[in-house]
Amino acid sequence: MTQLTNHHSKLFQTMEDRHSVKQYEKGFDISEQEKKQMLTAATLAPSAWNLQHWKFLVIEAEEKKEQLLPIAYNQSQVVESSFTVAVLGDLEANKNAEAVYQTAVENRLMPEEVKNTLVGQINGAYERGGTFARDAAFLNASLAAMNIMLAAKGLGYDTCPIGGFNGAEFVKAFHVPERYVPVMLITVGKAAKPAYPSSRFSLEDVVVKNSF
Ligand SMILES: Cc1cc2nc3c(=O)[nH]c(=O)nc-3n(C[C@H](O)[C@H](O)[C@H](O)COP(=O)(O)O)c2cc1C
After folding, report:
1. Which residues are in the Nitroreductase domain (predicted)?
2. Which CATH number do you get for residue 182?
3. Is position 3 within any domain?
4. Residue nearest to atom 27 of ligand 1 (CA)
């Protein structure tokens, strides 16, 4: 297993310590304040044009966790963890542009005409159709998801990203509006058992310099 050497850095330590935990202390309560810290960390992720293509559906009520269980193919972590965050991607993130840039204009950080040009470019990209909106939703929401996992670890909790769930059923059961696409579920809680060991390819295997 590759070791990041600089353990003086808390961030590096946190990245190395994060692993996908699948068994949690059932009933462990994480405070609202800590939940907010994790979700705030999620919102600090970068996003294209700062459109913040994400929505976080926090599933914490027992009956909602039970409802999620079969949708997540009976992965018991969704009922045993403290809560699950469904990270949703925004398929119409261009609709955020006006609000995002208006603040900059009001704070005199951006001239009105620059805002109008940007909003025009963004709407243009979204109006061209194809896979653009869906790609952008997955790409940007995934960066927020990573922040949730690292923030949870930083607070002493563990997580597991889950792609194994039925998206169509999820949308139906949790009344997800058409505007959003489920990207991944993240279970969060206090580990009852450590993660299964995992390995990584070496840098020699994954790094290419300058060009293939
Ligand atoms: C997009 C994505 C989907 C995943 N789906 C599942 C899943 O459905 N169930 C599960 O137990 N783990 C799932 N995982 C966890 C991976 O198996 C795990 O991240 C990988 O084996 C590396 O191990 P580590 O996270 O413990 O370092 C998923 C991870 C990612 C990034």
Report:
1. 16-190
2. 3.40.109.10
3. no
4. 19
Domains of the chain: total:
1
What is the Å distance from ligand 1's center to 62 Cα?
23
**Per-residue pLDDT tens listing for the chain (212 residues):** 455 555 668 999 999 999 999 999 999 999 999 999 999 999 999 999 999 999 999 999 999 999 999 999 999 999 999 999 999 999 999 999 999 999 889 999 999 999 999 999 999 999 999 999 999 999 999 999 999 999 999 999 999 999 999 999 999 999 999 999 999 999 999 999 999 999 999 999 999 999 99
Ligand 1, CB within 6 Å, residue ranges: 19-20, 22, 75, 160-164, 184, 195, 198
- Provide the residue range defining the domain that includes 172: 23-45+52-91+137-206
Specify if 102 maps to a domain.
no
Q: Measured in angstroms, how far is the CA atom of residue 203 from the centroid of ligand 1?
A: 20
Residue 79 CB-half CA count within 13 A: 14
In a domain, 116, yes or no: no
Between the two ends of the chain, the Cα-to-Cα distance in Å is 26
Tokens of 33: 């304040």
